[in-house]
Amino acid sequence: MDILQFPINMLNNFYDISGVEVGQHFYWQIGGFQVHAQVLITSWIVIAVLLGSATIAVRDPQIVPTGAQNFVEYVLEFVRDLARTQIGEEEYGPWVSFIGTMFLFIFVSNWAGALLPWGIIKLPHGELAAPTNDINTTVALALLTSVAYFYAGLTKKGLGYFGRYIQPTPILLPINILEDFTKPLSLSFRLFGNILADELVVAVPVSLVPLVVPIPVMFLGLFTSGIQALIFATLAAAYIGESMEGHH
Length: 248
What we know:
globular; two-stranded antiparallel ribbon
């Protein structure tokens, strides 16, 4: 019973995490639910930028790509290589769109939080920031990844997928079960913690010395923001590949 109680407590902790707040927040009431308005606003802006850029880049495709089409194809090839490396040559195809969506959403969200002057948009409470600066967003992305690798494993192996929990020995059953709970925890907290830390590190010198001094720190934040998007996408692809190949 103690072994089963721990995963239940982990799920309860996920629910409690959604109540974590840093600073003030502006809320909307949608139906019977209270949601963070600034997260929805910035998420919609990021989604609009991604959709608009993709539409403009491929509205008149050329056999020999130039300009925006060339950049989009370069990004697509980068995501394909990432998925192929982590998932495998035979299985990666259907997962390129999922891995690419995760990578681009996190990358653009992180850079939007670092580059755009959100402070000029006044809200009744709080202020706009990167969507990934909110624990609810990172937990949602991590849970989507968990659903994806369970779906991949069950689609490939059927109910035989659950045999991985007793490999290489049934003694490891509790540890293998806990692994599936720690994966989304580590994904969500790694992304949230690093993005929040980057914004706080930039905010302090900006408030003390508004010009010149914070610029190198901001460039470092842009670099780490891109790295965090790459890490999340790489781990998501690795988990999907692992679920289809079996326990390592």
